[in-house]
Amino acid sequence: MQTGSDLLELIDNKYPQMSKGQKIIADFIREHYDKAAFMTALKFGQTVGVSESTVVRFASELGFEGYPELQTALQDLMRSKLTSVQRIEIASDKIGDDDILDAVLQHDIEQIRHTLDETDRQDFNMAVDRISTCHTIYIIGARSSASLAQFLTHYFNLIFPRVKLVHASTRSELFEQILRIDEKDVLIAISFPRYSRQTIEAIRYAHSRGAGVVAITDCASSPLTQFSDYDLFAKSDMASFVDSLVAPLSVINALIVAVSRRCSDTVTRNLERLEEIWREFEVYEPAKSGDEDGK
Question: Which of 60, 95, 100, 288 is most buried, judged by most C-beta within 10 A?
Answer without folding.
Answer: 95
